[in-house]
Amino acid sequence: MRVAVCSYPGSCANPGDLAALRSWARTVLTARSSAKEPAVDEVVLVLDELATDALVSGGVCRAASLSFTADGVRAEVTANRRSVAVPATRRWSLIPVLASRWGRRPGAAGVRMWATIARTTVAAPA
Description:
Layout: E1 4-7, H1 18-31, H2 40-56, E2 61-68, E3 72-79, H3 91-98, E4 101-107, E5 110-118
Antiparallel strand pairs: 1-2, 2-3, 3-5, 4-5
């Protein structure tokens, strides 16, 4: 399976950095948009929620990326913490609604949190 990965060139150490992350994601997604890609707003929202979770849980979002696969778009962030516990917050009730698959796993650089937003079929305007 061929995967195209776009990595965010910065990190998010405080809430003010999230606007730049969202802007980057919107630019990448708009440049790659097609009728079969997930809605740009959904992907940006999921990426923002993952990065926000990294920040409010006392960490830093060290890395963020968007991966384009045959299944859809995978938003991923790496937080500099070790806990993989899923907090009972709005973020973790929203992500399963928008994502077809999602998860968290520990790694050498911290916890990776990811969500795949499935490709959609967009009907032609009537």
